[in-house]
What we know:
twelve-stranded mixed β-sheet, alpha/beta, Isopropylmalate Dehydrogenase, oxidoreductase, metal-binding, NAD, 20% strand, PdxA_fam
Amino acid sequence: MNEKPIVGITMGDPAGNGPEITVKALAHEELYDRCCPIVVGDAKMIEQAARFVGRPDIRIHRCQKVEDALFAPGTIDVLHLELIPDAASFSIGKVSAEGGNAAFQCVKKVIELALAGEVDATCTNALNKEAMNMALEQDHGKHSDGYTHFDGHTEIYAAYTNTKKYTMMLAHHDLRVVHVSTHVSLREACERVKKARVLEVIEIADKACRDMGIENPRVAVAGLNPHCGENGLFGTEELEEIGPAIKEAKEKGINAIGPIPPDSVFSEALGGWYDIVVCMYHDQGHIPLKTVGFVYDREAQSWKAVEGVNVTLGLPIIRTSVDHGTGFALAGKGTSNELSLVNAIDYAVCMAKGRK
């Protein structure tokens, strides 16, 4: 058992589908052959979720500490945090400060466990940013060490691990993208395309691939402007910022390639030309990943697949996540697809083994 990484999994916002897909994911018995999963959350919400998905047979084992866990198929270990006083009266599918606080406290706890070495990797279910920040503002920093706002998971992890240089990676199997900027306006995103930051993300991308066992990563760097600016005709960022960053990365021994026109780089990456793509802003990377990972079945009128993994790079601990939202509209129905969470757990396992 000690050879298998221990993965701490947050339940996400309890008003969403996080608890349900957690139960569904951990109902896969073969998952326990690859890792030792433990959920960080309110056991009452996980018990309720087991009923929602039609798996009342699964035992929910409350733990006070990680070493209490059984790590046995058919049992879901939950590091219990008393967050929701009454599960029966808690409103599913609605934004609330109570749900936002619960999600935040789970993230804070799993980071603490990882920094203490009690878990080898962390994996997060989705939280609702509005609900979380509503809770933080009402809390006035009393239980969040003075913080009253976070843009999302990535910023929480950066704050609580004291990390200054980090970025988001999205992955769908071997298609991987990292971002120069994420949760900012498009106008500000363009302003953030600076040589130092682009170089920083290229270096982080190269290291991430090496951590996953890729010996000589091929790091593609997307341009910002149409046709990479056409030598300054449609913009000069490629000439003044992106190109110089690639040149310096090459001088450091990184196999950086580009800048490559954004309308072709992802097709080439899907074709196996590159191991990872450095993107200049949020949607440049998110749209291609979700296009291939989120598959809707028109005839069945349901999601056939919701795949994709979100990884925060540059941290002293491992953090992976589902690449979808809280699914408030689906909460309580038991129909949510757990594939993204299973993939995120597997990525966490891969990275944990790589670090060891």
